[in-house]
Amino acid sequence: MLLLLVIAHSCNEKRKTFKPNASEKMSKKVYVEDSIENLIFIDKAITIENYFQFIDSIVSKYDTLTPYKLSEHILVRANPWIIDTLQNTDYYKRISKDSFVFDQKKMVVLPKGTMLKVPDAVFAKKIKNSFKSTLIDINIPEFKLRIYNASKLVYEFPIRVGRDEEMYLEMSGRVQDLKTKTGEGQIVNHVRNPRYINPVNNHEYFVTKRDDDKVTKLPQIPFIETEINGIRNGQLIHPTTNAVTLGKAYSNGCVGTNEADAWVIYYYAPIETKVHIRYDLNVVNKEGDSIVLKDIYNKK
């Protein structure tokens, strides 16, 4: 079921800075635990609108030099401060600090003078093994998305889910069940520069009204496409620009997160990451008490 059309174009560590001499090149090698690690000096500020192109250029260049298959996700997970910086571009995080951001794409995410490290083979293998043991777990009536690594809870995020109703969607040309579908599956695609289209009327839009009634341009944050029970039904994991809708059955079937959390999920969910979407009413809260959730889809 196609619920939203998106089209793609095409631990914590401190940032290290240094001032290169004229003879120093854009990158240098240092020996770390008997293996070679590349340090890449960023000589100009990189904004979000140029971020993916820049990261892709680094991956393309250094993939020929590493003894393993380098990827965007490995590179960024080896430099976790990037995720922290991306999280802090969240509109609501900025507005809480009295910083209004009209166009998130113009924000600097890789400041001039910082460095990236290309991980050595040992570190890269550790990251790849972590990806293989990662699970994205979503419990619909709990409005929670959790990231597990080898059964250990790493993150827990609030979400919104699909509404309990049927509606005619101009995009698909038929009446659709808007409930979020349950099942087992995996991540099959990343849309790093999505178009925002309302599936109800098939209208593309470029600005959004925030919860505080201010209007901003739409942010560039990756959408994540899932395949559940072997079916790609357009059920995405993506950010919402209206955080007030989290904790509600509000969407056209997709799983919505806030902007900051969407960046974390993206970098913990490379292609083939396992996904489990469930509908469990009986859960245990953080205090250890067994509780019964509201049956938002009236399944009983």
Would you kindly provide a written description of the structure presented here, covering whatever features stand out?
By secondary structure, this protein is α+β, with helices and mostly antiparallel strands. The chain has two domains: 27-129, no CATH class; 134-292, L,D-transpeptidase catalytic domain-like (Beta Barrel), CATH 2.40.440. It is 18% helix and 32% strand. The chain is built from six helices and 23 strands. It has helices at residues 48-63, 72-77, 81-87, 91-95, 121-132, 259-267, and strands spanning 27-32, 35-41, 46-47, 108-110, 115-118, 134-139, 144-149, 152-158, 161-162, 166-169, 174-177, 183-191, 197-198, 203-204, 207-209, 215-217, 223-228, 236-239, 249-251, 255-257, 274-278, 282-284, 290-292. The chain has an eight-stranded mixed β-sheet. A three-stranded antiparallel β-sheet has the order 1-2-5, with no helix packed on it. A hairpin with a 2-residue loop joins strand 1 and strand 2. The chain is globular. Mean pLDDT is 89; it is low at 1-27 and 29-36.
Features:
23 strands, alpha+beta, 6 helices, 8-stranded mixed beta sheet, L,D-transpeptidase catalytic domain-like, single chain, 3-stranded antiparallel beta sheet, 300 residues
Largest sheet: 8 strands, mixed
In total, the number of domains comes to 2
Distance between the termini: 24 Å
Which regions contain 5 or more consecutive residues with pLDDT less than 50?
Answer: 1-27, 29-36
The helix/strand series, from N terminus to C terminus, equals EEEHHHHEEHEEEEEEEEEEEEEEEHEEE
Which homologous superfamily in CATH is the superfamily of the largest domain? L,D-transpeptidase catalytic domain-like
- Let me know the average pLDDT: 89
Query: What is the correct CATH architecture of the largest domain?
Result: Beta Barrel
**What's the CATH class of the largest domain, please?**
Mainly Beta
Structural class: alpha+beta
Computed CA radius of gyration, to the nearest angstrom:
21 Å
What portion of residues is helical?
10-25%
Would you report the number of β strands? 23
Strand order of the largest sheet: 8-7-6-21-12-17-18-20
Briefly note the CATH topology name of the largest domain: L,D-transpeptidase catalytic domain-like
Strand content bin = 25-35%
Shape: globular
Number of helices: 6
GO molecular function: peptidoglycan L,D-transpeptidase activity; transferase activity
Keywords: Cell shape, Cell wall biogenesis/degradation, Peptidoglycan synthesis, Transferase
Protein name: L,D-transpeptidase
Family: Belongs to the YkuD family.
